[in-house]
Amino acid sequence: MNPVAIIMGSDSDLPVMQPAADFLKSFGISFELTIVSAHRTPQRLVSYTTGAKDRGFKVIIAGAGGAAHLPGMVASLTTLPVIGVPIKSSNSLDGWDSILSILQMPNGIPVATVALNASKNAGILACSILSLSDENISKKLLEYKKELEAEVNRKIAKLKKDGWQNNFD
Questions:
Q1: What is d(CA 80, CA 75) in angstroms, rounded to the nearest whole number?
Q2: pLDDT(18) > 70
Q3: In which element (H, E) is residue 65 found?
Q4: How is 69-137 classified by DSSP, letter by letter?
Q5: What angle, rounded to 10 degrees, do the helices at 70-77 and 96-103 form?
Q6: Residue pair 118/46 in contact by the 8 Å Cβ criterion
Q7: What's 41's DSSP letter?
């Protein structure tokens, strides 16, 4: 079974949503990726979302640009956690329309929202949710965060080596 669904409104969203898929792959987490348009395929949206839990999904990542109704509509139809990825699309207002459409959900219909075009963060958040019931994922997340810290420490050391002043360390 795939614990994560990655959905988007159009195939043009795939380059933005790819990092979420890549992160899940790097953790060995299976997922399904498909197109579900809130505006062009409303019956598919309802059918896909209402059947998601029975199909074994535990988290849904939904990317959308423009009016970005997909994540909110999905959240209104399921009790599964929904992570919205606002996408700066060709008809976008610098992405703010997408951000606000996903972020400003009414009370009672929450959507976790990551930064504009930040599907990798959606993948990480999905792993965090799954880690609550999977110790293996939890350990992988801890190692991932340790590597982030090590990367910053390498950069600090390089700055010092290059002669930059740092009185903190």
A1: 7
A2: yes
A3: strand 59-65
A4: -HHHHHHHH-SS-EEEEEE--TT-STTHHHHHHHH-PPTT---EE--TT-HHHHHHHHHHHHHTS-HHH
A5: 10
A6: no
A7: -
Give the span between the Cα atoms of 108 and 113, in whole angstroms: 15
- What gap in Å lies between CA 43 and CA 67, rounded to an integer? 18
User: What is the tens place of the pLDDT at every residue in 98-129?
Assistant: 999 999 999 999 999 999 999 999 999 999 99
pTM score above 0.90: yes
Residue among 37, 38, 83 nearest 57 (CA)? 83
pLDDT of residue 69: 95
List, in sequence order, every residue forming a beta bridge with 61; answer none if it has no partner.
6, 83
Name residues whose C-beta falls within 8 Å of residue 73's C-beta, 6 or more positions apart in sequence: 38, 45, 49
Q: Which two tokens stand for residue 157?
A: 């050391």
Separation CA 46–CA 49 (nearest Å):
5
Buried-exposed string 137-168: b where 16+ CB fall within 10 A, e elsewhere: beebbeeeeeeeeeeeeeeeeeeeeeeeeeee
Q: Which two structure tokens, joined as six digits, stand for 150?
A: 């090590």
Q: Which of 63, 68, 51, 57 is nearest to 32 (CA)?
A: 57
